[in-house]
Each structure stands twice: as structure tokens, then as C-alpha cells.
């Protein structure tokens, strides 16, 4: 780890001038620290003066050396406290004044000195030292010892004795450095560049070894230097153990963070919120009440127990599962053995086109198969778990390894019309859990993926790369930062799982808790929250790829990251896959990733051909000939969405949309070489005629931006 920048910052902090009139200084990180320190000191002082108001001024000595004389005559500077021991008060005030003088001394600026010499109370508002109503006065000597001068007569303790049972020093670390050094698997937040994290040392022995650092971390020495800034490794060199609290402020409320030491430790953060007892949003007039992590400021509760009928239905399904499990396992074991691979790519797909499950449509399964084969990928390590007979036939017809169990899947209805959406959803989600659970349980590493996904490079080469940091599970970043997905935001449509006792335990229990999936209407939400517990309890390690990583783009990037999408369209990105997430066949069609002939969309196998699939053959099945187009079927739909070619005649999808390849169009209009001309034959119905081009010039250059 390169620590130079931190060191440099340390030095900068040491040199930075400081003064009592901080307001005149330019705001720098140093400024923040010193201000903070002054605040801490001031606040401690405030604590001594209860129920007091004042606008009084006090007299200052003309130089630090005159302090003693001054302090005797400084009664006039008091806060008007009658009920507080006045000598104690004087001592505090004089300490603070001395403190400020010293920092001015350090600043060594002529101006400051002049003001000081003119001196007297004029320049210091006693107000700042005096407490506002309601602050608690420490009463005993031991409680107040914190602000006393230490024996070396020139420094003060930032940390009073009463805190030292768990705070023995504080340092700052660059947030990015800290998060990189201790990879907790959570998706990084790139918008916090330049931010720092705070490390609190519970014991003196945990402080870094460097003497100067130790002193400053404890608030000794020149306060103008502020808290030390260290690299994550330096800061933690003597930490035998470390607790990490990740905190943010969802809904941007007036949030406070309390650290309470010397308690029976908890590894959960308890959340309190002002709200009515039963429900309702944040309400400042109410008392703070213990509230779940899923209780949003708007009053929505994200986490709640499943309803009775959901539990009942789930138990029935589990009963079936346990009944058929032995034969299920042996059948699956045989199939996996035949596939002869250590890592299995697992897909599940559904024929009924449930609106809430567009990412499972069987035509997307067909597209994945056709698309992959057109690029030369072998699909021998892919296994499909259809949730209905129609999809089973399609999958087999496409020559894919297919595992279907009529008992288990029979409870998964095929067509939405005849069932309530809730039931189909539940059943399909159950299969989404079971398919990974079974393969994982049998000892295979699993790459699970929804079917709304295409490959550019074999993603397994990424996960098998030995230089990949080792985690038990890897997920794509969903991009959402709702409370219900915190702190991982794992996308459950593309993830990799190593088979080990921890992941086996996890998926078994996810299966047992699947009634929550019905209740919360989200496989992802349940999986993440259960992951949290397993991470905490079993150190199941989970890595969520940063959404800035080019390797695993998805819907998020499609709709928001134009630059990356252009790179992908040009075939120049390092992306392994593309996961549409918010599926629209149309988007795949624009992208040039659609390979399914129209006659196979939404059709059952028997409507396409009466050839019987030969499940023994390793080749593409009979449906492949009918359904797969070797060349991508490219169609324009939306001008403002990523597309392989310019779509000048298509409508905008967003009112304020901008043409995706707009600038390219203008640039290439100047070029007329054949290589830039649109291969017109590839474009279907919505192809704009060249003369319709907005600029009117001809021939238009409907090309992908491969020269940018
Ligand atoms: C493995 O990962 C490293 C680091 O990301 C990369 O440089 C290398 O090319 C990868 N190897 C393979 C075989 O993909
Ligand atoms: C792990 O998560 C599962 C749900 O997947 C939960 O039921 C189980 O209690 C958790 N186990 C541990 C040890 O955290």
C-alpha cells in the first residue's frame, strides 16, 4: 500500500497555521480537523456551565505568560454562574483561554498577536464557552479530570478518563484506502473520493507504534495539528481485532450515531427513529423508538413475517421436496456426472410470461442458446431447470442439458391465466432457489444466471482465474441502494457460488425460508438479508462487483452508461456478459444480440416442429435449426437507447432522450466509403431510408462508432 499521500497530508496538517479566528481561513481538511477539535474542547467546557446565558466579554492577558495573574481577575468573564464552584469555573475558563492563546502562538501571525495584545476579553466571546440550557454538569473531580492540564504542562487530553474505557485514541484514514485494504465485499461508493473514515482505539496498546502518532491520536501535543491521518495498514498495525461499522444516512434524516462501550457486545446496529408506536413515518414530535432496519423514514416496513397461507403453501412444497429428494438427487447426480465438469452454469426458465418475471421467459432461454452458439461457445456445462413442461420441451429441443422433476415442478403452474400471479411467482421462485441449492449441495460450483443474458466471453474463465480474490460467492451489483438490499445490493440474476459447507448451509436455509420470498415478493431481498446473517455468523464471504467494473454490465449500464455501452457496441469493452435485468427483447434487438427467429417467440416446441428432440445427442437440438438465426437480427426501436447502429427514425423512449449515436452520425456523414455503409440487408422493418436522415445528406452512414 502506498502511504506517501497520507504522509504528505500529515506534514501539511502539521504546518498549517491555526488561529482563534478560524473563520478567516480557507476551508481545507486541516481546517475541518481543527474546527472539530475546538468544538470538542468547547463542548466539554460547555458541559460545566449549566443553565447559563451571557453576552459578557472577558479580559485576556497580553501574553500567555500573564495567564496566572489574569485568571485571578477573570471573574468578570464568568458566565454568570452563581451555583457553580467559581474557582473550578475560573480554572476551566483560564484553561480554555490558555488553550486558544497557545494555538495563536503556534500560528505566529503578526495580526493575530496584535489582536491578542490589544487583548482583553474583547476578542473572545464568552458565549462560546458558556453552556446553553440543558447541558449536564459533571459534578465530581474525577469526571472533570479530562480537561485538566497534563503533567507536561503543555497539553490537554482530548479524551477524558470516563471515555477511556473504550476510546484511547482516534485517527483518520482515507475511506477509499480503508475499503480497499479490508475488502468486505460490499459494492464501493465511488462518490466519496477524498472522504475519510474514523478509527477509534479501544485500548492504548492498539494504537499505532509511532510515538508522535500515538500522542496526537490521544489529543496530546499541539491541537492545531489535528488528528493524525494514516494509511489503513499503518492505522491498524496493532489492532488484533477490529469492528467495522458501515453507516450512511438513508432518506437524509437528522441522524446521530452513538457508540456505547463496556456493554455486552452486539454485532448488529440498532436503529431508532422518532415515530408513532405502531406505524407511520418519521415524526420529530415523537420519541425515539427502536425501529427495524427495514423501517424507512417514509414509514414503510420492508421486513415482516410471512402470512399464514404463505407459510402453509411453503410447507406443502417443502414436504414434496423432502419426499422426492433422494431420487431427485440421484437423477441429478447422474446427469451432472455425464456433463463431466466441475463448474455448472445453472439456468431456470418459465414459459408462462408472468409480467413480474420477464427475465425468465423461455424465448430468452432460446436466445441465450442461439446467441452463445453463434459465437462458438460450448454449452455442455449448462443445465436448465425448466419450471414447466413447455419450457422443458423447448430446452431439450435446443439441445440443452435439462433437468425437470414433475413432482417438484408440477406445483409450478405454467400459464398465468389459470392461476393467481402470487402462486406462479412463488412456484417459480422456489425453483430459482432449488436449482442452485441442489447443484451446490452435490458439490459443484455454480454460475447461476437469469436467461436475459448473453455472453461475450466465457464468464467461467473469470471465476476460474487464480488471481481472483477468493470469496465464497460473487454477485453483480444491482445498482439499487434501497434499504431492503443493504449493504450488498447483490443482483440475484447473475452470481457465482463455490460449493463448500458454508454455501451449502446458506442455500439449504434459503430454501427453508422461501416463504419470505412470497411475502416480500422478492428473491433478491430475502437472499441478501439472509446473506447478512450468514456473513456475520459463519464468515460466509461475499463479493459484489463494483458497478463501475466493465466486466459484468447490465441493465443499469444499458440505461445510464452511454460511454461503456458504446465500447460494448464496438466490441472493445472487457465485458464478459451482458445482463439486461429490465428485460425487453427490443433492447437485445437494438444491441445486435438477438438471434431468435420470430416464429419461435412465445411458441411451444410442438408449434414449431414435430421433430422429437434427441436428448442423447450433444449437438444443438432440432429446434435450433428453426429458431436460431446465425446472424443477429438487428432492429431499431428507440433512438435514445444503446444500439448497434444509428436509429434516426425511431422514437425517443424518454421525453428528454438524446440520440445514442447522434454525434457519430454527424461525424461519419463526411465519410462515404463502403465499409461505413449500413449493411442494409441486416436491418428489418424499422430501417430508416437513407434519404430520411435528419441532415438530409446522402449516403448516410449508419454505422457503429468504431473509430471514436
Ligand atoms: C487473470 O486475471 C488477471 C488479473 O485480472 C489478468 O491479468 C489475467 O489476464 C487473467 N488471466 C486469464 C487467464 O484470464
Ligand atoms: C443463514 O441464512 C439462512 C437463510 O439462508 C438462515 O436461515 C440461517 O439461520 C442463517 N444461518 C446462519 C448460521 O447465519
UniProtKB/TrEMBL annotation:
Annotated region (Disordered), positions in chain: 1-25
Nucleotide-diphospho-sugar transferase domain segment(s): 379-583
Any one GO cellular component localisation term in the record: Golgi apparatus
InterPro entries assigned to the protein according to its UniProt record, in alphabetical order: Nucl-diP-sugar_transferase, UDP-D-xylose:L-fucose_XylT
Highest rank taxon of the organism: Eukaryota
UniProt KW keywords: Membrane, Transmembrane, Transmembrane helix
Keyword Glycoprotein: no
Pfam family, one: Nucleotid_trans
Single Gene Ontology MF annotation: glycosyltransferase activity
PANTHER family: UDP-D-XYLOSE:L-FUCOSE ALPHA-1,3-D-XYLOSYLTRANSFERASE-RELATED
Protein name: Nucleotide-diphospho-sugar transferase domain-containing protein
